[in-house]
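Handout, page 2. Input:
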Amino acid sequence: MRRVVFNQKGGVGKSSISVNLAAISAAAGLKTLLVDLDVQGNSSHYLGWPGSGPTVADLLKRTVGWFGSLPPAGEYLYETPWPDLDLLPASEALAPLERELEMRYKIFKLRDALDQLGEAYDRVYIDTPPNFNFYSKAALIAADSVLIPFDCDGFSAQAITRLMDNLLELKGDHNPELALEGVVVNQFNPQARLPRALVADLADQELPVMSSYLGSSVKMRESHQAQTPLCHFAPRHKLTAQFQALWAELEPEAALAGGEPLQHR
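Output:
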């Protein structure tokens, strides 16, 4: 299963959601890979990547003018400090490389690289840039499903229609099997009227809103600073429990089979 976490709006929590779901997946015993396609590299930093070594940019660059088989994808992976969790890190080199990859129509190469890894990973999470560019399109083509973070403000609500149009067009043109797995409500304040109204509007549009909402907490920023996902940094915190509930909603069979997150073992 490959999940891409995508929204064209920045600041909605894509990296935090990608990393924490991937970390819970790995803690539950599923061999998990996180692919970071955002030039800012927030997910890579969050998972402790030292900033030197092979990156996803190196892998994709090797496909330009490459006429043999794809370079071995396994050579570009970083083993994080946590068991069963690996990273394909981002790089600033993604920015200048994008135009060349687009001109040479290398949009399917990420999918090919993940296909090459075969059954090495039970789950793959893909963090994307906050726009509908080459890299986010490549991620959506490579994925089985997409999660849309929604951060409960009016600008996010305005962007949903355009986002859905782009997803449906890409699904029709390049990946007919792509499923909209759900909208992840983030930064939710149940005491405020606006977030409740915005989430109700999403339901009225018949969008698949996940029933497990994520709140806001300083613990998230602290875990970023510590480069440690919440299930390891603050295993008994309320926000950690919310992420675990979201993961269980996405993975009911794994949860029922005893793949509980780390704090419940």
